Amino acid sequence: MKLLSHILIFFLPILLVAEIPLAKNGRALAEIVTISSADKVLNYAAHELRRWVREISGAELPLVHNPGKMPYKIILSVNPSGFPDDLKKLKNNDGYAVRERDGKLYIFGSKSKGVLNGIYKLLFKNSDIIWARPNPEFGTIFSKKPDFKLTVTDYIDIPVFALRGWQMTGGGKNGIFSDAWQVRNGSNWSARTIYCNSCPQFGNITEYGGGHNLVQVYLREKKYFKRHPEYYPLIDGKRVRPSAFKDKVQLCFSSDEMTKAFIRELDAKIRKYPDYDTYRIMIEDNYHLCNCPACLEPLKLDNGESINKNDKAFRSTQFFLWLNRIARYMQKKYPDKKILTFSYFFTEIPPRCRIEPNIDISFCPIQRNSKAPLSSPLNSETRKRLLEWTKKTRNLTLREYYGLTGAYPRPIDAIAAADWKYVNKLGINKTYSQMYSDDTGRVLDGKKVWDVNGLYFWTTTNAAWNPFQDIKLLRKEFLKRVYGNAADELEKFYAVIEQDWLKSENRSDCNDRARTFWYNFSERQEVVEKCRKILDAATAKISDTRAAKMLAGLRAVFEAELKLCEPFSITAVKTDAAVIFDPDFSSGDWEKACPATKFTTWHDNKEAGAKSSVKILYDKNSIYFGIKCINVNSGRISSSTPKTVRDKWPKGEKFELFITGRDKENKTICNQIVFDINGNIYDARDKTTAWNGNFVLQRKIGADSWSVMLTLPFKEIMADPQQNVKVMFIRYCKQEHRNTEVSFWQHGIVHDYRGFGNLIFNK
Asked: Rounded to an integer, what distance in angstroms lies between the CA atom of residue 651 and that of residue 631?
C-alpha cells in the first residue's frame, strides 16, 4: 500500500491555473470592485492595486462599487460569502486568500489588513516587482509589461506571527516611506503607530505610549519634580531630576503617592486616547534606580517569601510589584485593555512575583550574541531567561535588534529566522525589531547601512511572515529581482562576506561597531580583491538605472570602509630635558611634536565639533601625552564630582586613551586610561579594572579649554620604544544642555588595537 500511495502521488493530475488578464497594450481589461462602505484600509488596498498595475502596465483599472462592463473583475472584500473553509482559517489574523471563480478574482480576508497584504503578495507573485528598500527614488524595481496578466490566482496565505514589524530609528524625514515599505513587505506594526496612528490606511496594530516613557510621557519632570521630587530616584543622597541624565531616570517605585499620580496620568491618557487596546508602560533606557531606604527594603511576596536587595531578581520584582498595582486598577476600570512593558535591562530577569494577566511582556535580549541563534550555546544565559519568562506568562513578544548594525553587510536574516522558528515553538507569536531608517539621521547615515544591508533587511522582513521559508531562496529572489543578470555575482559577493563574518572570533552585539568586521575582512587582501572583481563583473552586467544606483551605493560603502582600515600614525618626539606641563603644549620640546587633531564622530566619521589635540614626547623612562580639549561655544562643562571612586566610569566630559604593550608571553595587551577635568580616573587592562596604573595626571582648566599632561612610565604599560606600539584617543565632549559628542582620533575604534594608530618613536 505504501508503494501504491507513492505512485498515486506521482501521477496526480496537473492543475490548470486560470489566467486573469489585467492589461493589453497598456489598456485596461479588468476593474477593481469594492463595497461603497469600504474602510480606509480596504480603499487603500484598491488604490494601491490600481497604482502598481498602472506603474507596471500603463493601464488604469477602473475602481467601482458595482461590477461594470469590463470582462474581468478583481473583487476586494472582507468575510465574503462562498468561502467558508478559507474564512475559518483566516479568522482573527491578517492573512488572505486569492480565489478565481468564473473570471472573477477574489482577494479577501477576515479583516481589511488581510486584503491589503493580499494585493501586494498578488503583485509580487505575478510580476517581477520588488519593494527592495524604502528609498523613494530607486527602492522599488520592476519591469514594464503592457500586456499584464495574473497567472497565480488560487492560494491562501496565513502569517506565522500575529505581530510583525520594525522600529525605525536614526532620524531623517522619510518615515512615511519606511512605513509603506514595511507594509508592502507584510509588516503590520510600526513604531510610528505607538504615539499616534499617523497612517490609518496601513491597518497596522496600534499601541499608545511610545518607547521608554515613565518620565517622558507619564510623570514629566516639568509638571512634577518641583512639587514632588520624592517621585524620582534618590541617587548619591539626593533626588535626581530626569534631565540630569541624557537617558533620564527611573521612578521611586516604593512611593505610594507616586503610584497614585502615575495612575491618574495613565487614566487621563486612556480617556484622551480611548481607541487603543494596549497602553505601553516602559522603563527608561538606563539603570538609574532609586536607592532610598524604602526602595532598598526587602520585598514581601504573597507566598510569604522575602527578597533582599542583593538578589539578582530584586529590582525586576520591585518593578513588577509596582506595575501589578496599575494592572489591577486597569482590570477594574478598563477590563478590555492591556499594558505592554519591557523585559529589558534590570527587568530582563523574570521577577519572583506573579504577573497580572493583562500585562504583556516585550522581551528584549539586548545582551545576546547575534552571531548565533537564541537556541545556540553562545546564548545560553539569554535563552535561560526567555524560558523562565515562558513559565511566567504566555503574553510574550520577542523584541529584537536585528536591524541595528553599522555599515557592514551583517547576514542577520538567517539568525532571525532561526530565532523565530525557535520562539514560535515556545508559543510566542509576536515579534518586532529595531533598525536604522533608510535616511541620513542625526547619529548615523542610515542610507549607508541600507546600501550594504538592503538584501538582509528585505529577507528578514519577509521571513517574519513565515520564518519556515528557505532563507537562501529568499535571498536569491531579492538578488534576481534587483540585480537581474548580475544576481549570481552579487550572491557570490555576499557569500564571501558572510563566510568571513562567521569565521571571525568577534561576537556581534546590538549596535555593534561595523569597523571591527571590516578590519577582519581587510586583513585578507586576496579576498578583498576577489570581491572587487566580483563587483566589477556585476556592474558590467547591470542596465537598470535603479539597480545601478543600488549597486553603486554598495560599492561606495565597500571602498570607503576599506579605506578607513588603512594604517595611520602619530610620532612621539624624544626629549632629554625635563618635561614641563605647558597647557598649550607650545614650549620646549612640545613645539617639535606634531599634534593629532583629526577627530571624527562616532558612527558617521564626520569632523568633530569639539576640537581636540594630542602631542607626545618620550624619554628612556616614560611617555608624555599632552592633551588639550577645546570647549564648544564656551559652554559649562558637565562632569563627575571630584574624588569619585577610582574605576567608576566618569560622567560627562572626559578623555580616553588606549595604548598597547606586551605581556611576558609577548602577547599584545591593551591598556585603557580614562580621566575627566576633575581628575577622576577609570583604568583597565584588557577590560579588567584590577589594574590601577602608577601614572601622573596634571590638569589645568582654562576659560575655553582644559588641558592634561599624562606621564606614563613604560614599565606600567609593559611597553618600550623598540616595540610596535599602538594608540587611540577618544574625546567625550559633554556640556550643559548638549548631547555628548563622542569623537575618535582619525577613524578608530575602542578595545580592538587593529583600529588604533601606530605610535612611531622618533629617535
From this structure: 16
Query: 397: number of CA atoms within 13 Å, CB side?
Result: 22
Residue 10: pLDDT band with limits 50, 70, 90: very low
Domain ranges in the chain are: 20-157, 163-220+256-285+315-465, 569-762
Q: Write the CA distances from 174 to 171, 406, 570, 603, 623, integer angstroms.
A: 9, 19, 41, 20, 50
Is 595's pLDDT higher than 50?
yes
How far apart are alpha carbons 299 and 318 in whole angstroms?
A: 7
**Considering the domain 569-762, what is its CATH architecture?**
Sandwich (2.60)
Q: Which of 721, 753, 754 is nearest to 616 (CA)?
A: 721
| C-alpha span between 155 and 605 (Å, rounded) | 49
Largest Cα span, the chain: 99
CB-based contacts of 390, cutoff 8 Å, min separation 6: 396, 426, 427, 428
Q: Which CATH class is domain 20-157?
A: alpha beta
- Which of 51 and 245 is assigned the larger pLDDT? 51
DSSP secondary structure code for residue 762 in this structure:
E
Cell numbers standing for residue 168: 525605525
Choose between 9 and 284: higher pLDDT.
284
State mean pLDDT over 322-326.
Answer: 98
DSSP track, 446-488: HHHHHHHHHHHHHHHHHHHH-TTS-HHHHHHHHHHHHHGGGHH
Amino acid at 254: S
pLDDT above 80 for 86: yes
- For 562, the enclosing helix (H) or strand (E) is helix 545-564
Residue type (1 letter), 405:
T
Query: Average pLDDT over the chain, rounded to whole?
Result: 93
Q: Which of 452, 342, 354 is nearest to 407 (CA)?
A: 452
| Cα 389 from chain centroid (whole Å) | 23
Q: Which residue has cell 605610535?
A: 759
**Cα–Cα nearest to 749, from 608, 564, 624, 614:** 564
Q: 272-321 pLDDT, tens per residue?
A: 999 999 999 999 999 999 999 999 999 999 999 999 999 999 999 999 99
Whether 302 contacts 353, CB under 8 Å: yes
Helix orientation angle between 471-483 and 487-503, rounded to the nearest 10 degrees? 140
Q: At what angle do helices 412-425 and 446-465 cross, to 10 degrees?
A: 30
Q: Which three cell numbers stand for residue 708?
A: 592634561
Handedness of CA 507, 508, 512, 513 (dihedral sign): positive
Classified as helix, coil or strand, 363 is strand
Measured CA to CA, the distance from residue 121 to residue 141 in angstroms comes to 15
Amino acid at 529: E
Count CB neighbours of 242 within 10 A.
Answer: 24
Measured between alpha carbons, how far is 708 from 696 in angstroms, rounded to an integer? 10
Beta bridge partners of 729: 657
pLDDT at residue number 112:
98
601, three cell numbers: 564622530
Do 252 and 231 form a contact (C-beta atoms < 8 A)?
Answer: yes
Nearest in space to 118 (alpha carbons), one of 89, 154, 92, 65? 154
Least confident of 37-46, 380-389, 565-574, 638-647: 638-647
Fold entry, domain 163-220+256-285+315-465: TIM Barrel (3.20.20)
* CB hemisphere CA count around 530 (13 angstroms): 13
For 176, the grid coordinates are 512615511
Look at residue 9 in the predicted model and tell me its pLDDT: 31
* pLDDT tens, position by position, 427-449: 999 999 999 999 987 667 899 99
Chain mean position to CA 134: 16
Residue 11 has pLDDT above 70, yes or no: no
